[in-house]
Amino acid sequence: MFELGSLMKQAQEMSGKLQEMSGKLKELRVSGSSMGGMVTVEMNGMQEMIHCKIDPALIAKGDAELLEELIVSAVNEAVNESRRVSAESMSSLSEGMDMGALGQALNGLMPK
Fold it and tell me: Does the pTM of the predicted model rise above 0.90?
């Protein structure tokens, strides 16, 4: 049988860790680039774009279609990196927690 007090303590710990992790992800910075760095995008761990830099020489070419493709490519690279780093960070949240107790508690609350 599970202990409700222990389960509640774990839930409070998890809530605190989630808040802390959210703050860390907001501060985390990753980047993506295309065409050898002519377009660079910076994002945080929440997949919010923070900055976009476009080489003036690329703008001078006047090729809007190429520029659009390069921006999309750089953004996708940054999103993928942000997701990877975020997933690594989130996996550390459950370290040391007895997730089996949570399952037992939920099963105990379900009508039979």
Answer: no
